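Do me a favour: review this protein, sequence plus structure tokens, and tell me how the chain folds. Record follows.
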Amino acid sequence: MEIQQVPFILRVSEYSSKKKSHIDFELNWVNYLTDNLNNIVKPIKSLNNNLYEIIQVDNKSYILCLFEKAKGKIIDCNNPMEFNDKLSQTISNFNVDR
């Protein structure tokens, strides 16, 4: 997603009160970090001045969050200088919420 040629990431999550509470905490924490540290991807407030919006589509609710896109590049998986055991180990250390 791009707005005026600036890239953004739109995250869409299925709504639950637990998920809403988690996202509310997460976005307020990240917003605090962006105000106090450098190189943190900033959440973008909506036109309603919210860090997220909840929408309803076909009797389901979703939480939408918009972020600045982090600077960087796509890793070339065929280049061992970019994609290797060290990077693979680092990625495996992330706790992915499934």
Q: What stands out?
A: The mean pLDDT is 86. The first helix runs from residue 17 to 36. The first strand starts at residue 2 and ends at 3.
